[in-house]
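Reminder to self: tokens first, then the designed residues, so the page reads top to bottom the way the pipeline ran.
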């Protein structure tokens, strides 16, 4: 349930925001939101997250992403009963983010990026953000859960 909710939130947020950008921006147009620190700039990304591996064939990238998604979804389904709600949600954020970018690759052959941060080396989108934040929260949740398990084992 939590995984599906996070997937839906990530996918809808990502696709809606990309639709708004493509409908209202010229390619490479920038609008400052917070001075030069934060802005929106519409670009097409042929690489993976944050423009990495832009030299790879789009089909190869799509296959790699599909395999990673398959592994994540299989893990989420197999261990659904053992995984608590927050961890399910974090896994869903990662899956939803990856699906958002995969939809772009299938539709356009590239990913629509538009969030530009001052001095950050790449322009990104909400899918990238859901993936990164989901991974960070998942790692933190696993570390916290591991510490709680270790401390309850010691106290017994």
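Designed residues (156 positions):
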């Amino acid at each position: 349930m939590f995984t599906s909710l996070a997937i839906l939130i990530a996918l809808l947020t990502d696709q809606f925001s990309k639709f708004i950008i493509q409908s209202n921006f010229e390619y490479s147009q920038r609008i400052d939101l917070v001075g030069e620190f934060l802005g929106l700039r519409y670009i097409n990304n042929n690489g993976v997250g944050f423009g990495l591996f832009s030299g790879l064939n789009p089909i190869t990238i799509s296959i790699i992403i599909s395999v990673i998604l398959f592994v994540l979804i299989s893990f989420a389904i197999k261990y659904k009963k053992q995984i608590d709600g927050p961890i399910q949600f974090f896994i869903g954020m990662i899956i939803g983010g990856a699906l958002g970018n995969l939809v772009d690759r299938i539709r356009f052959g590239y990913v629509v990026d538009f969030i530009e941060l001052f001095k950050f080396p790449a322009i990104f989108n909400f899918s990238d953000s859901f993936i990164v934040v989901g991974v960070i929260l998942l790692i933190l949740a696993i570390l916290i859960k591991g510490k709680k398990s270790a401390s309850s084992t010691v106290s017994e």
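The chain has one domain: 2-145.
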